[in-house]
Amino acid sequence: MKKYVCEFIGTAVLVLFGCGSAAIAGATLGTLGIALAFGLSIVAMAYVIGNVSGCHVNPAVSLAMLISKRMSFKDFVGYVIAQVLGAILGIGILYAIMTCANLDVTVLGANGYGNASSVGLSMVGALLVEVVLTFVFVYTILGVTADSDKSSVAGIVIGLTLTFVHIMGIPLTGTSVNPARSLAPALFLGGEALSQVWVFIVAPLVGAAIAAVVYSLLNKEVKK
Asked: What residue numbers bound the domain in which 166 lies?
């Protein structure tokens, strides 16, 4: 249960500060600032909950760990439930803060394509982008967490990787690479965000599965 609670808290923090930075100060921070908010959230949580749950805070990461046989199916289900609920809490807190500040709550850091994309990216393009970005992100996680000697820097590496995939992805889709992070704002916003959210659930899971398979084929696990 401690692992699930940690995943709940970690995902809430990621979504609150990542999506919150985009929704409240996106115009000021720009792409790099928002990307850093997501990345730094992961760095912070990795060094707080990483030794308890591994700090997945992302169903796609948990799926890759399941495929790689680094976690049980029971834990996978528990992690995903905790992550989704944590993401909903994070967006709920963000919604409350923005409402109290009389800010526009129609923008909660949701992902999108077409009219919801800054560059008008198509649905097919969004699927491709999210698969590729998630593959890179998850492949990095699998590599840096395979060797216990890298544990001291794993949080930083993972946070920086999340930052750089956001730098490319924000103008395209808003960057998901995390189904829980995408589902939560879509549930609050409804409409177009909710109708498009399947892309940001399916694509990251596909990208993560590919990363797990490729990693298992190309990299030998290091156990220490």
From this structure: 2-218
- The CATH code of the domain that includes 24 is 1.20.1080.10
pLDDT tens by residue, 8-21: 999 999 999 999 99
For residue 51, how far is the Cα from the chain centroid?
19
The reply to whether 41 falls in a domain is yes
What tokens were used for 160?
């920086």
Query: Which tokens hold the place of 57?
Result: 């805070």
Could you tell me the two tokens for 108?
A: 């909660």
Identity at 16, one-letter amino acid code: L
The pTM for the full model equals 0.92
Which residues lie below 8 Å from residue 72, measured CB to CB, with a gap of 6+? Answer: 66
Continuous segment of H or E residues that includes residue 14: helix 2-53
Q: What is the pLDDT of residues 181-202, one digit of tens each?
A: 999 999 999 999 999 999 999 9
- Mapped onto helix, strand or coil, the DSSP state of residue 117 is coil
Confidence at residue 224, expressed as pLDDT on a 0 to 100 scale: 43
Cβ atoms of 121 and 169 closer than 8 Å: no
The tally of domains found in the chain comes to 1
At residue 151, the pLDDT reads 76
Residue 224 within any structural domain of the chain: no
Count CA atoms within 13 Å of residue 21 on its CB side: 21
Instruction: Calculate what percentage of the chain has a pLDDT beyond 90.
Output: 87
- Number of H helices and E strands in the chain, helices first, is 8, 0
Residue 37 belongs to a domain: yes
Backbone phi and psi for residue 221, each to the nearest 5 degrees, phi listed first = -60, 140
For residue 188, give Cα distances in angstroms to 16, 56, 106, 197, 205: 14, 23, 9, 12, 22
